[in-house]
Amino acid sequence: MTELPHSIRGAADLLRSRRTSALELTEAALERSHADRHNAWLHLCDERARAQARTADARLKLGDAPALTGIPWACKDIIGTKAIPTTAGSRILEGYVPPYSATVVERLDERGAVMLGKTNLDEFAMGSSNENSAFGPVKNPWRTDRVPGGSSGGSAVAVAAGEALFALGTDTGGSIRQPAALCGVVGMKPTYGRVPRWGVVAFASSLDQVGPFTNTVEDAAIVCEAIFGKDPNDTTMVTEFPDDDLQTDLEKGVKGMRLGVPKEYFSLKGMEPGVERAVRAALKVLEREGAKLEEVSLSLTDHGLAVYYIIQPAEASSNLARYDGIRYGLRVEGPNLLETYRRTRGKGFGPEVKRRMILGTYALSAGYYDAYYVKAQKVRTLIKAEYDRVFEKVDALVTPTSPTVAFAIGAKVNDPLAMYLNDVFTLPVNISGLPGISVPCGFSDGLPVGLQIIANSYQERTMFRVAAAYERATPHHLARPEVKAA
Amino acid sequence: MAIDRSVVEKAAGLARIALTPEEVERFTGQLSVVLQAVERLKEVDTEKVSATASVLPILDVMREDEVRPGLSVDEAFANAPRGGRDGEFFRVQQVLEDRP
To answer: Does the distance separating the beta carbons of B93 and A336 come in below 8 Å?
Structure first.
């Protein structure tokens, strides 16, 4: 099978020098995606992709085409796509075909990017292993008996296995960064409120953001530039949009920058020694590049998990109330309307979604609302304040993305708390609304490890600057799994 | 906090989710473990702290009230469950009793 170029930037150069065409790239990507053996895709839309590629080729001939013109990409199946099935990984939405596209999809369409299809995910993005999909688990291309992480597992795999040049995912507590780490690619969650969520299936609305999976840091900045910015259809966005040119500082290096190393991120029980080794080695690299490392304290890190597992299911239980079998999706009729609701939702939702609905409903119910939901919102205030204080002293934080490498499929499915612990390093970033990126930083037992870089709100440029400096100094982002054809 | 089956049954009722007895049993154990873990929040003093619902400092977001194209009736009904459309209405089961 033909290999895709390593990066968007590389492909864009080939397209402009006529050494390849958008149609050729698209055919190669479709061939590789159809041969995928990791269950990464739920739907491939060949004809639509070819039509987009032909249009892209015409546009490239005219010159002045945007960087993403003709670039094949993969869309997490929680992002609505007009006339293309969108399931959110759930039986309750099986067969649902949105009558409109999400703003992020429209923006990529306008720029001439070529959407190959929709990728597998944990049902409604609830999971850290992609085992909660109603359409079967996704396998990690580095070792197929391992999970790819989640919830955007299919998107991570599509990029890691060289099937697409970038992918979109959503990140509510780590659902982009954690699978990126476990699959050895770049994954980035923007500052809360920078990317429109119009047309994206809502999970936990005070935490969800859309973001990219890519092979390089520069590519992540290119995709972010395309999807960032105000949308009149989304009322939950920031009103000011600073530094839209996200590539400006990529080459600047880290010399003289102050990077914080939160000690609580290294004292977690359950952190694998191989992960710690790889991350400590990455810190040394950044130091050698001229950064000043400072140990900082984020004392509430441990409590982030508790805050997250109250707020997130509470918001989800409210958002998912809309799946009632009346206007769209599955309907299982009972003897009366109430029974129809109960049976539809009992049949349509998988176990993890049910657990979170019950947990969220309980935390919001009379008598428990103050003790759980309001308490968690108050601790959220304190966690955010702790990050605010740390960012008075340092430019960015450098941490592990996940405490472990990819674990065995089936290892944690019956232990929700063990599964939730995967997100302990990523979810405080959502709680605080900050931007975070995971970049490959080596291997432990032959499986990829991710380095997380967190910046203050709206400081994506600083985050990309540190990530790019690390990437330039190491070869880890070039490593690719050996992918066997089906 | 350890919870018993009745708590799970009550919350599932409020969430309008039918559970099998096996699910009630399993979720009771699993959610007890999760609730015990979140109990730790009690250790944090929040007496003088206000709650954060969103990290964005936004209040009212306005836009011009302009006429824009929307979905056609057929588009809006295109995903209705089988038998769920009746002309320009979604068909649902009767909720009010007939008058005597």
So the answer is: yes
Q: What is the pLDDT of residue B57?
A: 79
CA dist B50 and A103 (Å) reads 34
* pLDDT band, very low/low/confident/very high, at A392 (cuts 50, 70, 90): very high
Please state the ipTM of this predicted complex: 0.94
Angle, CA A78 vertex, CA A202 and CA A401 arms, to 5°:
90
Domain membership of residue A204 as a residue range = 8-256
Say if B37 is an interface residue toward chain A (CB within 8 Å). yes
Which residues are CB-contacts of B100 (< 8 A; sequence separation ≥ 6)? none
Is A33 a known active-site residue?
no
- Tell me, yes or no, if B68 comes closer than 8 A to chain A by beta carbon: no
Total of domains in chain A: 1
Does residue B63 sit within a domain? no
Spatial distance between the Cα atoms of A335 and A378, rounded to a whole number of angstroms: 43
Range of the domain at B25: 5-43
Give the distance from residue A24's alpha carbon to the nearest chain B alpha carbon, in angstroms. Answer: 35
Domain holding B38: CATH number?
Answer: 1.10.20
Whether B48 and chain A come into contact, CB under 8 Å, resolves to no
**C-beta pairs of B83-88 under 8 Å, 24+ apart in sequence:** B84/A326, B84/A327, B84/A331
- The string of pLDDT tens digits covering residues B6-24 is 999 999 999 999 999 999 9
For the question of residue A151 being annotated catalytic, the response is: yes
Question: Cβ–Cβ of A354/B17 closer than 8 Å?
Answer: yes
- Residue B78 falls inside a structural domain: no
pTM of the complete model: 0.97
Give the active site residue among A128, A133, A151, A438: A151
Does position A478 have pLDDT exceeding 70, yes or no? yes
Count how many domains chain B has: 1
The count of CB pairs under 8 A between chains A and B is: 175
Of A96, A340, A355, the CB nearest to B27: A355
pLDDT at B62: 80
Q: For residue B96, name the pLDDT band (cuts at 50, 70, 90).
A: confident
Is A133 an active-site residue? no
Task: Evaluate whether residue B92 is within a structural domain.
Answer: no
pLDDT digits (tens, 9 = 90+) for B41-51: 999 999 999 99
User: Does A62 fall in a domain?
Assistant: yes
Output the CA angle A129-A138-A162, nearest 5 degrees.
Answer: 115
Cβ–Cβ of A358/B90 closer than 8 Å?
Answer: no
Residue A241: pLDDT above 90?
A: no
Residue B45, classed as helix, strand or coil, is coil
Residue at A142 is within a domain: yes
